[in-house]
């Protein structure tokens, strides 16, 4: 038996609280920003971006110390946005391998991806790592990636190269050489062990790896052996893959309450872009988007937008959400918003050679949204007959494009159209041998050539007006030889004839 080949890619993103908030605020990415944690007046800096670090901002600073710096933007920590960013990174890593282990902590993101055997799909490990880093950049996350056959070696190298957001690959058997120049800080040493190594003059992993193992164990116990193996890149690891559910969700907590919907569209556009990037990574599209607004006073305002076809057009989604919120505005100021998307297939409807031209789905959706804003939600849709014989009973369903491709998806069999007259028009009918022979309609006389009926209708046999209508389908011709196909009814309770529909 041979040992299966192992190859792991470590994704390390430091300052996760700051990156999680700035990914949805692109206007702040070029300014110094810090994230404050804790309750006033005991707040402290828990995360910062690179520009704030250059100015000298360090973790643990108080608001008073931050006020001594000029032009620094202060943000309050949002656990919900961090959870959304973490889920997006794990989801991105999962597109390269189904085996992903999460080892993140409160301030940094770290995951290990088992990429053994993926060369035929994504190419060499260096190509895969670069593609993964670019995919993370599209999500607004800066991370360093290291690839090695040893899990701990990849973790140490990714931490050591985090300042440059670099991509590194350790060749098989070269783990010790690749880790030799890294500082001991990549091992997460305890304060006691860090002080001991400092007194010994040990500052890098290479210096620790050169210590005699037995002497190190004699002085530090089994922890010394573990640290020695980590420094040499020989520490074994039990891989524990994470089984995460695919969910497209983004959340943003607003810095100040928002009352104007136009001011909300900028945040909605950024969040939609993130959802579209995540859906595109799985060759999917957004089938529906649910907007959940948290309002002042604890109320929640939820709206769902569903176009005719799944699409990844950001401007279309912004327009549809804008029109929907204008028609159903929230009743209080907005504190936070959450966008949850339902994925769908990126299908295309292909027209046949002799099929009629269909309107573009994007234009159709926007047009329907504008009509709904005028006539209401119940006034737009596709008429569907109800399962009853009662006249004029139908319901409206949302417009949908049939699934499938080719002409069979859009072609319909030839049918005779029946135009309902609303209101019905009165007419005079002449009978002969218990069947209608002629009638006067719109000041013209028609001689009946064929008559079909009668049918007694009402649709509700349990009602008080049981079978009150006598219905006939007639084919008649006028004196000028024009043909008329129609449907007439006789109201048995009121004793009158009415023209209710015309056949085209």
TrEMBL record:
Domain UmuC: 14-156
Highest rank taxon of the organism: Bacteria
Gene3D superfamilies the record matches: 3.30.70.270, 3.40.1170.60
InterPro entries in the record: DNA/RNA_pol_sf, Rev_trsase/Diguanyl_cyclase, SulA_CellDiv_inhibitor, UmuC
A Pfam match: IMS
Spans through the membrane: none
Keyword terms, alphabetized: DNA damage
GO biological process: DNA repair
Sequence similarity: Belongs to the DNA polymerase type-Y family.
Identification of the protein by name: UmuC domain-containing protein
Organism encoding this protein: Granulicella mallensis (strain ATCC BAA-1857 / DSM 23137 / MP5ACTX8)
